[in-house]
Specification:
It contains 12 helices and 21 strands. It is α/β, with parallel strands linked by helices. About 5% of the residues have low confidence.
């Protein structure tokens, strides 16, 4: 007896067979994608080069509370490709950028340090590039003894503790720009510089890697041919890279995004705490959340070095910038904080008495802080000297409703980052200890410096 399928059962058999084929195909494709993804991850991880941040461990603030990253553009010519000049076996930092990312990822302050800055560079131990005994010279030459020596020099110059460094060479910069399919820039005038292989017309245009590098490096096509003159071009190039890297054209294109990640990881040398993809992804995620209008590139204010007008040293405003970076205060604020504070706190501090005690051996210190308090509306009930030296500055407050709010206003008025302690008396007491200088909040003033926000119109 011959069994024959009905048309309906034949269709069911065909559908079941087709579903099995689809299922097997889906599994094969999924496995293939997984294999490719794993290979890609291994490749990206293998790209990363590592060098020491310091020769010895020091106490650096927890990076989860805000981080400071030194970005170094190396002028090393040790490449397989040509066109960058002869390899002399040495390297210097062609550009230096101190990037501050505060807690909450609300903004990024990126401070350009001119390569022609001179200082007394500290000694640095050998981390694989030789040791340096210390001496006076240009900050860019520190990189010849390795990134750790550049870290030491920048910390000496700025007083800012660094959590990480990222070094990128010429060849790596070109590959990053090319992986983005170029970057858009806008030039007011045409630029030619044979020494930098630069020949660009005026107007808006898309640059490939070599042209972007030439624009960032040229010294002879602009201004007086100094290092300071070219920093404006570098701000435009960096802004263009940020705009392109955060664009949908890159983030929503897996092929373009992978090429970008491959180029970045291949180009970088980083410290050990940034040596894994997870470390780099964590940093990238924090940066990605920052709006482009809150990313600001600022050139360190400078003045001619006393012994050589062709070199520079930090101007007074540079010290203010780095103090604000260290204390996580925005480099520039649009409003006058002192006046707005006085207006909003006037009712809260009305009739509040403050006793100021000088616990240091600095004559007249209590009077100095008395003037700051009274100028903001507080009533100073007395000025005294402590019979013994006080190690710590303290702000004593009564255990009353609103005392902490008033104490906060007093701390701001006296420009001290001081914590409060509840005591059994009445009124507020400010005891100035020997650590008062370390607690001083930088002067509240607008800093004039060349700067650019990453979202700024490139033709603006």
């Amino acid at each position: 007896m011959t069994f024959q399928r009905s048309p309906a059962s034949g269709r069911r058999f065909f559908l079941r067979r087709r579903r099995r084929i689809f299922a097997v195909t889906a599994i094969v494709i999924s496995l293939a994608v997984l294999v490719v993804a794993c290979f890609g991850i291994l490749r990206l991880q293998g790209n990363i080069k590592v060098s020491a941040l310091r020769a010895s461990e020091v106490d650096i603030p927890d990076s989860s509370q805000g981080i400071n990253v030194l970005i170094l553009g190396s002028d090393s010519r040790e490449f397989s490709s040509t066109g960058f000049g002869a390899d002399t076996g040495s390297q210097r930092s062609d550009s230096m950028l101190l990037m501050h990312l505060p807690p909450g990822n609300g903004r990024i302050e990126a401070i350009q340090i001119p390569r022609d800055t001179v200082l007394y560079r500290p000694a640095c131990e050998d981390t694989g590039f030789g040791s340096y005994a210390g001496g006076y010279g240009m900050i860019n030459s520190a990189l010849n003894y390795g990134p750790a020596c550049s870290v030491a020099a920048v910390e000496e110059l700025t007083g800012v503790h660094l959590n990480h460094f990222i070094e990128v060479n010429f060849e790596g910069f070109i590959s990053i720009v090319n992986a983005l399919d170029g970057i858009k820039v806008c030039l007011n005038n045409s630029m030619q510089d044979s020494k930098a292989n630069l020949n660009l017309s005026a107007g808006q245009q898309t640059l490939d890697g070599p042209d972007a590098l030439a624009l960032a490096r040229t010294r002879h096509a602009i201004g007086d041919g100094s290092d300071i003159a070219r920093l404006g071009n570098q701000q435009m190039v960096m802004s263009a890279i940020v705009q392109r890297a955060k664009s949908k054209e890159v983030l929503t294109r897996p092929d373009r995004l992978y090429a970008f990640l491959d180029a970045i990881t291949s180009a970088m040398t980083v410290d050990p705490d940034l040596s894994t993809l997870a470390d780099l992804a964590g940093l990238a995620a924090r940066i990605q959340t920052v709006p482009t209008d809150q990313i600001t590139f600022t050139t360190m204010p400078t003045e001619p070095a006393p012994e050589n007008p062709n070199r520079v040293v930090p101007a007074p405003d540079a010290k203010l910038i780095f103090e604000r970076i260290s204390q996580d205060i925005p480099v520039n604020s649009e409003k006058n904080d002192h006046l707005s504070r006085k207006e909003t706190a006037e009712s809260a501090i009305s009739g509040v008495n403050v006793l100021i005690t000088n616990g240091t051996n600095v004559n007249g210190l209590a009077s100095q802080y008395s003037e700051l308090a009274t100028s903001s509306g507080f009533t100073v009930s007395g000025i005294t000297n402590s019979p013994t030296l006080q190690k710590q500055t303290r702000l004593l407050i009564p255990d009353t409703k609103g005392a902490k709010k008033v104490a906060t206003e007093l701390a701001k008025a006296t420009k001290l980052d001081v914590k409060t302690t509840v005591y059994g008396g009445e009124g507020l007491q400010l005891v100035l200890g020997q650590d008062y200088a370390d607690l001083q909040v930088p002067e509240n003033k607008t800093i004039t410096a060349r700067s650019r926000q990453a979202n700024q119109d490139l033709c603006g």
